[in-house]
Amino acid sequence: MTIAAAPANAADVADFATYAPKIGAVKISKDEAPKIDGDLSDPAWAKAAVVEEFYQVEPVEGGAPTQKTRAYIMYDERKLYVGFYLYDTEPDKIRHAILERDGLLRDEDAIRVMLDPFDTKRDGYFFATNANGAKVDALIENNSSIKNEWNALWDVDARIVEDGWIAEFAIPFQSISIDSSLTEWGMQLLRTIRRTNEEIRWSNIDRTRDRIDITNPGRLSGIEGVTSGIGLEAQLFATGATSYDWETGDTDFTFDPSANIFYKITPSLTGSLTLNTSFADAPLDDRQVNTGRFDLFFPETRDFFLQDVQSFEFGGRVYQQNINGLPFFSRNIGIVEGRPVDLIAGAKVSGKLGPANLGVLAVRTGDDSVYDGQYLGAARASFEVLSESKAGVIFTHGDPTGQFDNTLAGVDFQYKNSTGFPGTLYGDFTYVRTIDDDGVNSVGDHYAAAAGSYRGLKWEWNAEFYNIGENYRPRLGFSNRTGIRQYHANLFRLFRPEDGPVRVFMVGAFGLAVTDLDDELLDRELGVFTRVETRLGGAAELEFFRGFLDIRDQFDIAGRLPVPVGEYRFSRYNLSAESSGARDLALRGKIRWGGIYGGDFRNFGGGLTWRPSAHFNIEADYDLVRFNLPTGDLDIHVGVIGATVAVTSRMFIRTDMQYDNISENFSLLTRFSWEPTPEREIFISLGHTALIEEERFPESFRAQGTSLALRLGHTFRM
C-alpha cells in the first residue's frame, strides 16, 4: 500500500495557491477487481494507494477537518477504482436524504471525484455520491458550469457504518476520454459535511474557487497500460409509443428502433453515430412566460447533444453573463420553431487530436409538415496557450428551416491567470461573423465581445462589452437582440466573519447600458445590492436599481398588454430569501416591486421542497407577475409541481405538472426509470396536456392529448 506523503498541518504548506499533492495509482489485475457494494474488505483495497491529507476550505480555509477522510486509489486495465472511508464520530447525524439519480448533493454529506484526464485545468468529469449510494455524474465545463444531464456507464455504492460511511466508485476508462501520452492527470477529491458546513478538499485549497473549479488539481500518476477493448460501444433502444387526441379521437402508434454507436478512434478521441434518435426521456422544459420584448432561452436537455459538450464550448465567460449572440446552440437541431422534428442520423467526433481539443458534428433532420429536412453541421477546435489559457475557432453551416444558406465563423481567446497574484483573473474575447443567403441577397455581419473578471477572497468584479451587428444571424446559435452595443459591470466586497451565524456577507454595485450602433441610449440600469449567506445554508438578498428604457417599437407583454413607444424611467426593488436545503422542509420566496413602462410592477414568488425521506420529495413553485399600466392591467400566473419517488438509487419515478394562465396550457409528464445494471435501462413515460381557460376554471378543463411511451435499452461494449 502506498500512502501519499503530505504536510501534517496547514502551516507546513508553503503556498496553497500552488500546492498540488500527488499520488501514484496502484495497478491490480482484472481478476482482483473489487465488488462495488460499499464494503472495503475486498483484498484488492489493501494494495491501493492511500490519501489521508485533506484540508478545510469552509468554514476555515486551510484548517484541519473535524472528521478524518481516507481515500483509496487503484486501477486495472479497464477501470479506475476509488474507495473512501469517511469517518464520522456522530454517524446518526450524517445527512443522506437523496436517493435518485443526479440529485443535488449540495445539502448532503457527500464525496466527489473530479477527473481531468487531458490536464486542461478547465474541463473534466464529475462523479459523486452520498451515504445512500445515489449516483451523480456530470461534465465540468470551463471551471464554471456543470452539465448534470450527462450520464455515463459507471458504478457506485455506499453504506453507513458504526464510525462513519463508506463509498466505492468504479469508473470505466471507456466511459471517459483519456490522453494516453500524459504521465499525470488532474484529480480532485472533495467531501462535504453538512451539519458543520464543512467543505474538505484534497487540493485547490482556495475558497475563491468553486467546488467544480479544477484550476489547481491534485496530480494522479501511474495510470498506464489501460485499454478500452476495441473501443466500440453500442447503445441499442426499442421505443414503442402511442398517443390519443381527445379533440379528434385519433389514436396513433409508432415503433422506433434507435441506436447510438461510439468508437474510440484513439483513447482521447471518440467518434459517435446516432440513428433515428429517440428523445423520449427528455424532461419538460421549465415553464416560462415571455413578459419582455425578446425571445426566451431554453437550455439543452437531450443526452446525445450533451455528450462531450465541453468540446463545443466557445467564448468562456462572454456567454455566461449574456447568452445573446451564442454562435452554436444544439437545441436548434431537432427542434424547429418550437416543434420537434425527427433526427434521422447524426455523426460526431469529439475529444483531443494532437494539440487540439476537437468537436465536429454533422446531422440530418427529417421533414415535417412545414419544412424539409436539412443537413446541419458545426465544428470547434481549441488549443492550450500560455500556462492556463486557450484559443480556438468555431464554424457552423446550415439553417434548420432551410430558408437560408447560413455560414458562421468565429475565433476566441480565453485568458486565465491564477498564479500571478492572490485570486484569479480572467479575460475572454470573441469575434464571430455570419453570412446569410436567401438565394437572392447575401448579408454578412459580425459579433464582437470582451469579458473580464477577477475573483479574490475579499473583492470580485466583472465587466463585459458586446457589439452585435444588425444583420448578425447565427441560425444554429441563439440571438434575440441585434444592432446594439452593451456594457455591463459589477463590483462587490465580501466579508467572512470568523464566528457567528453569518458565513458570507457581501455588498456591491452594478451598472448596465445598451445603445444602438449610433451610440444612442436604449436601456440603462444603475443599482446596489447586498447578500447574506448563513452557516446553516440559508441566504437573503436585497437589490435596488434605477432604470431607463427607450421603447422604439410597440410590443405586447405576453401577447396581451400593449406597451407604447416612449421613454420610461423607473425604480425597482428586489428581495429574495431561502432557507437551508439541508432541512426536510426548505422554503424560498421573492418579492419584486417598483415601476415599469409608466405604471406599476409587482412580482410575488415562492416555493418549497419537502423531503420526508430519501424515497420521496415534492417541489412546488408559484409565480405571480402583476402589471398595472396606463394601457391596462395584466396578471400572469405560473405554477409548477414536481415529485420524485425513489424506490432505490437505480429506480425512480419523476412527475412534473405545469400551468400558466397565458397559454392556458396544463401539462403533466411522469417518467419511470430503472437501471437493473449500468448497461440496461427500462424507461416509461406518460404525458397529458389540457387547456384550462382561466375565466371558466375549473369547469373549463379540456383534455387535448395523452401519450404513452416504453423504451428498452441495452449497452454493449467491446
Plain-language structure description:
This protein is mostly beta strands and 718 residues long. It has a domain at 10-221: Immunoglobulin-like. It contains 2 helices and 43 strands. The strands form 5 sheets. The protein has a 24-stranded antiparallel beta barrel. Strands 1, 4, 7, 8, 9, 10, 13, 14 and 15 form a 9-stranded mixed sheet that branches. Strand 40 and strand 41 form a beta hairpin. The two termini are 32 Å apart. 34% of the residues are buried. Residues 3-11 have low confidence and may be disordered.
Number of DSSP strand runs: 43
Helical fraction equals under 10%
Strand content: over 45%
> What is the general shape?
globular
Weakly predicted, low-confidence segments: 3-11
**Structure classification:** mainly beta
CATH class assignment of the domain at 10-221: Mainly Beta
In whole angstroms, the N-to-C terminal distance is 32 Å
- Give me the oligomer status: single chain
CATH fold call of the domain at 10-221: Immunoglobulin-like
Which CATH-level-2 architecture of the domain at 10-221? Sandwich
What is the count of helical runs? Answer: 2
Q: Major sheet: size, sense and barrel closure?
A: 24 strands, antiparallel, barrel
What is Rg? Answer: 26 Å
Estimate the mean pLDDT confidence: 90
